[in-house]
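Severity: low
Component: inverse-folding endpoint
Summary: output formatting inconsistent between runs
Steps to reproduce: submit the following structure tokens with default settings.
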């Protein structure tokens, strides 16, 4: 769990240091803008923007019942963030598995990607798709989901 927060914490700390330096130089406006930028980057890279993760087995079991795709992701992955943001509210309809928190999820991703932990990997009807287009993922959602 802590691994997922390393990058956001570093971004907040770095932004605080940079902003403090700008304040001491007499540039409070620049300091505020830089701090807000670093805070935004920390927020985007934190696990908070993703729906609650489940384990790989649980997600695959639920997917078999409801037909919704499973998304394997990890914090700090710009492609995962892109997918999450482009999916908008429909992202909550998917089953999300954080591979840094779930070893079985990481193993499933490695099995689908020739031993690499390439994310996002989306599992649709048991078939893995690596870094799919967000519009395509949205189309995979059933109307009843």
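Observed output (run 2 of 3):
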């Amino acid at each position: 769990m802590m691994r997922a927060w390393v990058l956001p914490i570093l971004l907040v700390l770095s932004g605080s240091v940079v902003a403090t330096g700008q304040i001491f130089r007499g540039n409070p406006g620049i300091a505020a803008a830089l701090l807000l930028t670093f805070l935004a980057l920390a927020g985007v890279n934190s696990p908070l923007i993703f729906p609650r993760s489940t384990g790989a087995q649980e997600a695959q079991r639920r997917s078999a019942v409801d037909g919704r795709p499973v998304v394997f992701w990890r914090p700090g992955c710009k492609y995962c963030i892109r997918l999450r943001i482009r999916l908008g509210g429909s992202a909550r309809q998917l089953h999300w598995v954080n591979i840094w928190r779930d070893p079985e999820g990481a193993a499933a991703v490695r099995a689908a990607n020739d031993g690499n932990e390439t994310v996002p990997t989306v599992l649709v009807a048991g078939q893995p798709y690596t870094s799919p287009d967000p519009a395509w993922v949205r189309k995979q959602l059933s109307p009843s989901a």
